[in-house]
Amino acid sequence: MARPLSTEAREKILSTAGEILLDTGVSGFTVDEVVRRSGVAKTTIYRHFDTSAQLIVHALDSIVAPFPTPNTGSLRGDLGAYCEITSQITCDARLRLLMLELLAAAAQNPELAKTKRAMFAERMGPVRTIIQLAMARGEISADVDADFATELAEAPFLAHLMIHGLDAPTEAQLDKMIEFVVAGLTGMGSDAAPAPAH
Amino acid sequence: MARPLSTEAREKILSTAGEILLDTGVSGFTVDEVVRRSGVAKTTIYRHFDTSAQLIVHALDSIVAPFPTPNTGSLRGDLGAYCEITSQITCDARLRLLMLELLAAAAQNPELAKTKRAMFAERMGPVRTIIQLAMARGEISADVDADFATELAEAPFLAHLMIHGLDAPTEAQLDKMIEFVVAGLTGMGSDAAPAPAH
Amino acid sequence: MARPLSTEAREKILSTAGEILLDTGVSGFTVDEVVRRSGVAKTTIYRHFDTSAQLIVHALDSIVAPFPTPNTGSLRGDLGAYCEITSQITCDARLRLLMLELLAAAAQNPELAKTKRAMFAERMGPVRTIIQLAMARGEISADVDADFATELAEAPFLAHLMIHGLDAPTEAQLDKMIEFVVAGLTGMGSDAAPAPAH
Amino acid sequence: MARPLSTEAREKILSTAGEILLDTGVSGFTVDEVVRRSGVAKTTIYRHFDTSAQLIVHALDSIVAPFPTPNTGSLRGDLGAYCEITSQITCDARLRLLMLELLAAAAQNPELAKTKRAMFAERMGPVRTIIQLAMARGEISADVDADFATELAEAPFLAHLMIHGLDAPTEAQLDKMIEFVVAGLTGMGSDAAPAPAH
DNA sequence: TGTTAAGCGAGACGGTACGTCGCGTCTTAAT
DNA sequence: ATTAAGACGCGACGTACCGTCTCGCTTAACA
């Protein structure tokens, strides 16, 4: 006798929400605006999503896509390849903005925190594999914690986002970052001076 | 000839605003709340600050304080010392939140962007000096750009903020980060190096 | 299809507004005070009434009530009877004030002008009938314009309102006014000069 | 030892206030607007006039001018002449508005009430003389109270103001009003009932 | 002929009301 | 029972005017 929540409505809501998020960022996001643009009733939106934050979460979730993991045979090669793979995402000013806003919002909202974690996991999974491969190859000391190393590997790219905001790094800067990361990771753990990068 | 804007009111506004920012973050900041807590009239607030954003800017500005620059004779020592100096700031969850929110807001508001830049400048100035000392000592290659190296040196700490939000890094993690940074910076620039990555 | 404007809210708004109008007059009328007294949200008030003036209009409209038309067989008798019928209204200081304020406001606001006209129509309709009956009886010349005569018949009462403000006329004064009106109206139109007064 | 309030400032204030009153009426009158237009400081205004109402009062007072009293030898002639004398004032829509607003305001503010009374006195003084002359001539019964008769004589003109607002009466209407007043006043007081009109 | 207290312009101050926007909840009719 | 539509209470927004206050500067009356 009942009637299920229509997927049609849900999708219209999510795509409109995503659109708005890209247009105006989280700060400009408004349930009323979703209503206006999508023609879906506010009641319906709140029936599908308890909270406007949850709607944002789901809209963001549908934006995230998994990345393939490169395997070039060297840490440096893999990191360079991965940079190129993700560059479409990491250089889009709108996505950079969303990421920054998400970071701030996640610090106050547990649901968004979960989404943030998922996004990082998606993005950092391949990096972790890259690290583990490098450890298997001996490029990185086995003493190093893989998860922590993954964070370190991402650090320069994330820091650039924080410091320079919407302006993506240049090719040259990316190269330097990779050089730094490779030097840093290969130089860690072994008390002896950094092993020659082979 | 006219009556000057009262410094008393201004200070009451700013201190109250700062208080609220620490309590609730930028997202919970409200001019009306400033009115309630400070007893200053809304009109007066808008007489002093054109925009609520400007008020936030000035409130944040008055929170920033300069840090001393350590000089222990080694890159590793200096970074460690600086970490300890700044740890009061960098470990306060409220300030971590403010920083994250500021990053997001700065991406959309030029005035806040200026404040953000000032904050980074304050924080990163000593690091830059540390880097330059290390370059003078020969620990870091003279080929490396000092500004860029400064950003790289901060990267792990900033990245931790992004990834872990309000949870500050542990002592052990800080040690590892410093180790990573030292290895990374000292390993850069020497041409004896990595095979071309692309 | 949508939810209709609730009559409950509308009535609460209107009765509260009327109450305030009687308490403080138009000049002391405030939407915020309606909010406070009625518990209805300001947004809701503005949903029902575009303008505070419109709200006043409707509140006043709901105060107006039609008067019965007397028929005693003589102009003098009818006017006297009508005076007594309307005395509750015309002697209430609060309503006298409202009327004065309405007159001033109507001169500047077309909507209030409409309400003013309606109020006068309500009040003067029976007088017009009284005049027409007198004309049919031959008490008043058929040459006289009934509408204009109606205005003349009301003139002393209205003038008293203007000159004496909130102080209503005494019984004796009302009698004299009626005497004046009867003499004036019956003496008009017939070219034969008024009978010598002594 | 002190310095007297400057008449220059006072006059600038009053003339500007009068200007504004004619432009926008009492309801649009604002002390801040006087400041803007006159260049006189708000402090100075409040030094000269305790209250914005008092300022309005004095501005209106300086608008009022005495009228000459006609003497044509007959009540009808005098009233007609007086009508013409005052028509410049009584037909100016801006002054009609001011009068209506003054009536409303006077009902709530004792100071404005005083001004209103003064205005009526100025305007009705000559009418009273006209009435007294007519009583001396025997046109009006000596039994009638002169003050009350004066009010009755003005009634149609005042009533027209109330009913028709800013639209002044036409010549023809004025004639009829005078006819009505003459008939009314001459028909009063003689116990001999008014002669049947047919 | 100074001195000096007041007047003066300018405009900041604490208030109150304005009319608007977004929130998340609710009610209604129609499918 | 879900939907579109939109009314509801709430609270923040930024503005206008109120009448009071604090500023320096200027000026007229007194010594």
| CATH architecture annotation of the largest domain in chain A | Orthogonal Bundle
- C-alpha termini separation of chain A: 70 Å
Residue runs with pLDDT of under 50 for 5 or more positions of chain A: 192-198
**Quick one: which chains have the greatest interface?**
C-D, 53 and 55 residues
Rg of chain A, nearest Å: 20 Å
CATH homologous superfamily identity of the largest domain in chain A: Tetracycline Repressor, domain 2
CATH topology of the largest domain in chain A: Tetracycline Repressor, domain 2
Structural class of chain A comes to: mainly alpha
> What is the chain-wise order of helices and strands of chain A?
HHHHHHHHH
Tell me, rounded to a whole number, the average pLDDT of chain A. Answer: 88
What is the global morphology of chain A? elongated
How much of the sequence of chain A is in beta strands? Answer: under 5%
Please provide a written account of the structure.
4 copies of one chain form a homotetramer. By secondary structure, chain A is mostly helical. Chain A folds into 2 domains: 7-61, Homeodomain-like (Arc Repressor Mutant, subunit A, Orthogonal Bundle); 75-187, Tetracycline Repressor, domain 2 (Orthogonal Bundle), CATH 1.10.357. Chain A is elongated. The first copy, chain A, has 9 helices and no strands. The longest helix of chain A is centred in the middle third of the chain and has 28 residues, at 110-137. At the C-D interface, α6, α7, α8 and α9 of C face α6, α7, α8 and α9 of D. Chain A binds a DNA duplex (31 and 31 nucleotides) through residues 1-6, 9, 30-33, 35, 39-44, 46-47, 51-52.
